[in-house]
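User: Fold this; tokens only.

Assistant: Input:
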Amino acid sequence: MLLWIALTVCSLVVLLAAIKLELQWLRAISKTLASTGFLGVAVSTGAAETVYGQLSLAALVLCWMGDVLLLGRSKGMFMAGLGVFLLGHVAFGVAFVGLGQDWLWAGAASIGMAGLAVVVGRWLLPHVSGRMRAPVIAYIAVISGMAALAAGAVGGGGTPWVMVGAVAFFVSDLGVARNRFVAPAFINRALGLPLYYAATTILAATAGGVL
């Protein structure tokens, strides 16, 4: 597991340098390797041996695919990546339900996440063109629901790390949204990418039962 984590960390450092230096070929290689690292964490720790692990592994594969798609610069590639990540969040949500839910926790978290989603929407949507508004709204709703289900899983006796991973994922996506729609800048990636890879690595470790 530690070797896979090291692959992700080292590749992330190279990825940030590639973005800063605008080296697209190096960005593609390093991002693919960084994302392969979190898949390796899940597989090497036995994610395939449990239903929760299998569902989480499926979600992580979708994240890997989304990362590859988002290497493209066209709107079509971005939309495809957005769709794949949305499916990944749905898979994580199903996995969290499978862990067992305390629906009081999930309901309370849903109220909080709904309020946060409204704040995010009011900030982001004025910068999103008409055709993309519906997919972006759907994405905000799904990732908010995923985070609420993570809270429900913790309340139901699951590891608190699923909530840590889900919240880190949510916050990292704010960096993606800011970079794509609001104010493109290196700082968005410098803050968002480490959070994203922390989130996926944590969730990969929970899939294998080591967290």
